[in-house]
Amino acid sequence: MIRFAQLLAQGTPTPDAFSAYMTQVDPQESEAAQRLLSGQRPTRLAPAATLLGWVAQATDTPDFLIDACLKICPDKAELAALLLPPATGTTPSLAQSLANLTSAADYLTLARSLPPEARILFNRLASGTFRAKLAPPTTTPQTPGHCLAILTLIDPSGPTATFALPHGAALVPLTRLRLTIPGTPALLAWARANVTDRFGPLRQMPPTQVFELEFDGMTPNARRKSGITLLGARVKAWRPDSRAADVPTLSALLAQSP
């Protein structure tokens, strides 16, 4: 399950990325992934709101706190993943997760054994909202480029970070990426001293830090607030020389799409 989540972390997988993934997993995992990416969806266990209710009850999270969290993270499947404590137990494979997903108790046991990124994917499978499909090479849009973006959230356990772009009077989430740049330790130290709010493992940051992102392409994604998924996105550099006010808007990035 973790490798499958890593495969999908950068958006719709290319055939080359999927082929590399296939060499790393056993036949059962490979078969389950092929079914999912060919459009065969597992039977829905429960809506995302129900999953969130189960998690709230299991973690004794009061309704008022759930409501407050939903204002920051309106995606119920994602919030349900983030509210659970750090993973415990043996991590199930993708095939095991799908085969054993039959009840609320099964769901909580499986979800608790997964790290946050894999939980989010697991919740999309459980709630019937998983939509990724393997992208044919002839139709994957290729617009190699880069953009500036503003850091809004950090998960120190990854470490991963959420980056956003200005859109009107708000910041719209663009992508969440693993932090692998040389300046990561300094960034995490800054983050610890500048947390403005906490949502499970996520730490909300003041929208002041600018980063340069690179990507291999972009593809439409109506399920995202930004309306796109960046393909092969990665963090190139922390840009303390840039101000958040200077970051181009989401509309400017969309204008790069053919």
Structure description:
Strand 1 and strand 2 form a beta hairpin. The protein is globular. Strands 1, 2, 3, 4, 5, 6 and 9 form a seven-stranded antiparallel β-sheet that branches. Strands 7-8 form a two-stranded antiparallel ribbon. Helix 6 packs across helix 9. The chain has 258 residues and is an alpha+beta fold. About 2% of the residues have low confidence. It folds into two domains: 126 residues, no CATH class; 110 residues, Nucleic acid-binding proteins (OB fold (Dihydrolipoamide Acetyltransferase, E2P), Beta Barrel), CATH 2.40.50.140. It has eleven helices and nine strands.
Write the layout of secondary structure elements.
Blueprint: H1 2-8, H2 15-22, H3 27-37, H4 48-58, H5 63-72, H6 76-83, H7 94-99, H8 104-112, H9 116-127, E1 145-155, E2 160-167, E3 170-178, H10 184-193, E4 197-199, E5 202-204, E6 210-215, E7 217-220, E8 228-231, E9 234-238, H11 250-254
Antiparallel strand pairs: 1-2, 1-5, 1-6, 2-3, 4-5, 6-9, 7-8
Helix pairs in contact: 4-6, 6-9
